[in-house]
Write a structure and sequence with these properties.
single chain, mainly alpha, 10 helices
């Protein structure tokens, strides 16, 4: 039953990659809309990391889990630094090269998401659902960005969509791999959970929040704060 829930959840997470199709059909170009999604993602990631993942990791692993948080932050930094070259603002890398490197980075990212979902469900169904929700809320703006990068890099929209969707398979593979790995090595669970918490905090504080500062209008800034708090409260009231 747990394996079934993991596979179902990773498939559902992978379907978020089809957000690009909505962009093609609806031609959504609203900066405000993307900003609001980012705000909700920030709150959900911070809330999930601090209110759910870290308490669960500490309960099972004690103070020994804290280095894993640091490793999580560093790992996500390295992944972003060397694979997600679209964050570069110097413009010195070849456009088409970083477009395909972005797909490699997204595949690794999705595989890690699958591992995280597996580890959470192996602890409890409620923690699995909470983690799944945080990942999905984060994936929506992430996939918006991936689709925009692919089209900007010279790919046709439909080709960008299908390549982006292909990387979603790695989320399912990560979930299956995580299930069998963590079923045999249960002592690794709190360290994976705390590693994930570090990654969630890195993404929220390093990637997403700087993008929100591009909005300087008072009303939009208030909406951003309200949505960040909404994401945190959603995580707060979800059962552990």
């Amino acid at each position: 039953m747990t394996l079934f829930l993991i596979i179902l959840s990773t498939i559902f997470t992978g379907l978020v990659s089809f957000i690009g199709l909505a962009l093609i059909v609806a031609k959504v170009k609203s900066i405000n809309f993307t900003s609001y999604l980012l705000s909700l993602a920030v709150g959900s990631l911070i809330g999930s990391a601090i209110l759910h993942l870290l308490p669960e990791a500490v309960k099972d692993g004690g103070s020994s889990i804290f280095p894993s948080i640091i490793f999580g932050i560093l790992a996500f930094f390295i992944l972003e630094k060397f694979l997600n070259w679209h964050h570069s603002r110097e413009g010195r890398c070849d456009v088409h090269a970083f477009t395909y490197l972005n797909f490699i980075g997204d595949a690794v990212h999705n595989f890690i998401d699958g591992l995280v979902i597996a580890g959470a469900f192996l602890i409890s169904p409620n923690l699995g659902l909470t983690t799944l929700l945080a990942i999905i809320i984060h994936e929506i703006p992430h996939e918006f960005g991936n689709f925009a990068i692919s089209v900007h890099g010279g790919l046709k929209p439909l080709r960008a969509l299908w390549l982006n969707s292909f990387t979603a398979i790695f989320c399912v593979l990560g979930g299956i791999f995580g299930y069998f790995l963590l079923s045999d090595f249960e002592y690794l669970k709190p360290y994976l959970i705390s590693f994930t918490a570090g990654g969630f905090l890195y993404v929220a504080l390093s990637d997403l929040i700087p993008g929100l500062h591009q909005t300087r209008k008072g009303r939009e800034s208030l909406v951003q704060v309200a949505l960040i708090l909404t994401g945190i409260f959603i995580m707060w009231f979800l059962p552990e």
